[in-house]
Specification:
Helix content is 25%, strand content 31%. It is of the alpha+beta class. It has an eight-stranded antiparallel beta sheet.
């Protein structure tokens, strides 16, 4: 077994891997950007190394800096987690060349399955059913039009060849939408995966998204751990996952069939480690979609129903050990559900909502698990993925697990930050969820989402008999450790404020480090987000979130209808379309491509014609 492992990631997955290493007796090394200097994964690891500035390209995606950190630390292996460089064959190969173990499949398998077009070719050759579409890149919109007309038809999915996690995925319902879909998928492919090539698939309008977890060792054993259902998504990114999949449970023999598809796909590329075969299930037919050559965000629900630690199995396999379980040992018990707790405002069409967490308390009790990488005082930065934590529950059946999840969601308190807690609670109480539907009608219903806007927490009334007090927060650094200092006293005095208190170090923040009042239930995420407001010139459209303006779609003097695209704001690895809130004329345009904006900044004024 390894003596020391470096975790090339951040947030909850970094903490998850550190925990697994601790149980295996392995020393851990964290890496971090300047923004993550005080993050929980940095405090938890045995040692930590700075990579560089906040932007991922200068830190978590910088291969040379990561390799230098590996060398400095003396780590024997690197666990990439998910995202960032987890499916980067070049990074895996660079480690292999230096004699460092990449905890994942060999670079050849990443290369084979990392290109979605190459993966489709391999699966078709191996007899694995694939969604109808192209198995080679499509060079231009003109070529796409011909292929669609002759082979696929509309609606069509345009997908980045190197994509994943919902990035580089656009849908054209008809020919008028093809050019925008093609360009959008290519742009995201280049931005997130350094690969602008795209391919085409028939778009299935409302399939079940079902995936199978596989484990393989270096001794020829390949097994599957059953399936997960990840159908509840927004913008082709998952929100809720569950295991086992209700639709698979209802069809005799389907679990064995898709499990065999998964193991056949893994064996076809000489896979080793933990991986996932994703597929679409519609009308009893299961189609291969893609393979993720890494641990998945939603691996937790499979762990809960099988009792198998997928992360530890992956580490053992990388160290050369055989799998500790055989296929006949895998038994699914009960039902598990995972809710992704993202810093997003569902009432604003899932707009990212970065910010600082004040008070923080995780739910507990039987069958409840929280995988998180935050605490009181943590900053959820717009530079990274919006995930705050994953809430996972287990119970004897789906109905019981749903009730437990609702209870846990109500216990979860994340002060000030706007998250998906209200969304999850609301959707799990709908008939659509109870009937195991995809819930796509609700997620795409702007009116239903808008109703999820919760009010601000009630503020206690001021007591006129009590003089107002002033509290100021400071961060001081002593001997390399940061401390949060709270100074409280009477306003207007000539001397310093009284009542100085120092809390736990910022580098080891305790649960009581930020003593803010706990918001009441139903208002725990009540920070408002700016929208449109009226002024003397017409109606001003303001930015609903912090980010960078990626695209401006209008010009001054242009007539727009309600719902027309005004601009696109990029934030937290997502492109957010800002649309006209009313019909009229663009009398003023303040949005400019490349400009940084804060929530509430003026974008445009839409006046009456």
């Amino acid at each position: 077994m390894f003596g020391k492992v470096l975790i090339a990631n951040r947030g909850e997955i970094a903490v998850r891997v550190i925990r697994a290493c601790e149980e295996l007796g392995i020393a851990t090394v964290a890496v971090y950007s300047e923004l993550d200097r005080d993050a929980p994964h940095v405090r938890r690891a045995g040692e930590a190394h700075l990579l560089g500035p906040g932007p991922a390209a200068e830190s978590y995606l910088n291969v040379e800096r990561l390799l230098a950190a590996v060398e400095r630390s003396g780590a024997e292996a690197v666990h990439p987690g998910y995202g960032f460089l987890s499916e980067n064959a070049g990074f895996a190969r660079a480690l292999e060349e230096r004699g460092i173990v990449f905890i994942g499949p060999p670079s050849s398998a990443i290369e084979a399955m990392g290109s979605k077009t190459r993966a489709r070719e391999l699966m078709a050759a191996a007899g694995v059913p694939i969604v109808p579409g192209t198995t080679s890149p499509v060079e231009s919109v003109a070529d796409a039009r011909v292929i669609i007309a002759e082979q696929i038809g509309y609606p069509v999915a345009v997908k980045a060849a190197g994509g994943g996690g919902g990035k580089g995925f656009r849908v054209a319902l008809d020919e008028s939408q093809l050019e925008a879909a093609f360009e959008g998928a290519a742009r995201e492919g280049e931005k997130f995966f350094s690969d602008a090539t795209v391919y085409l698939e028939r778009y299935l309008p409302d399939p079940r998204h079902v995936e199978v977890q596989i484990l393989a060792d270096k001794h020829g054993s390949v097994i599957h751990l059953g399936e997960r259902d990840c159908s509840l998504q927004r913008r082709h990114q998952k929100l809720i996952e569950e295991a086992p999949a209700p639709a698979v449970e209802a069809l005799a023999g389907l679990r064995e069939r898709i499990g065999r598809i998964g193991t056949d796909a893994a064996a076809a590329v000489g896979y080793a480690g933990a991986g996932t075969i994703e597929g679409l299930l519609q009308d009893g037919e299961y189609y291969f979609l893609e393979m993720n050559t890494r641990v998945q965000v939603e691996h937790c629900v499979t762990e809960m129903v099988t009792g198998i630690d997928i992360v530890k199995e992956g580490i053992r396999v990388a160290a050369g050990e055989p799998l500790s379980v055989r296929q006949e040992d895998v038994v699914l018990r009960g039902h598990a559900i995972e809710c992704r707790i993202n810093a997003e405002d569902a009432s604003k069409n899932f707009a990212p909502a970065p910010g600082r967490i004040t008070s923080y308390r995780e739910p507990a009790g039987p069958g409840v698990r929280v995988d998180s990488g935050v605490g009181p005082g943590s900053e959820v930065s717009p530079m990274y993925d919006p995930m705050v934590a994953k809430l996972i529950v287990w119970d004897k059946d789906r109905e019981s697990a749903t009730a437990r999840m609702v209870r846990a969601l109500r216990e979860y308190e994340i002060g000030q930050l706007k998250t998906l807690l209200p969304f999850h609670e609301a959707i799990l109480e709908t008939p659509q969820w109870a009937n195991a539907e995809t819930c796509r009608d609700l997620i795409e219903d702007r009116a239903w989402l808008k109703a999820l806007a919760f009010p601000k927490p009630e503020q206690p009334a001021d007591d006129p008999a009590t003089p107002a007090r002033v509290t100021r927060d400071y961060t001081v650094e002593v001997s390399g450790r940061r401390f949060e200092v709270k100074v409280t006293g009477e306003p207007g005095g000539a001397g310093p404020l009284t009542g100085t208190t120092a809390t736990a170090p910022a580098s080891a923040a305790a649960p009581h480090a930020t003593p803010h009042a706990t918001p009441r239930r139903g208002a725990r995420n009540g920070r408002p987000t700016a929208s449109a407001h009226t002024n003397a010139d017409g109606e001003t459209l303001t930015a609903p979130l912090q980010g960078t303006i990626f695209k401006v779609a209008v010009t001054p003097g242009q007539t727009v209808a309600e719902g027309d695209l005004i601009c696109v704001i990029e934030a937290m690895k997502m492109e957010n379309e800002i649309t006209a809130h009313r019909p009229g004329v663009i009398s003023q345009l303040h949005a400019t491509t490349g400009a940084a904006v804060q929530a509430g900044d003026r974008l445009a004024v839409i006046s009456s014609p």
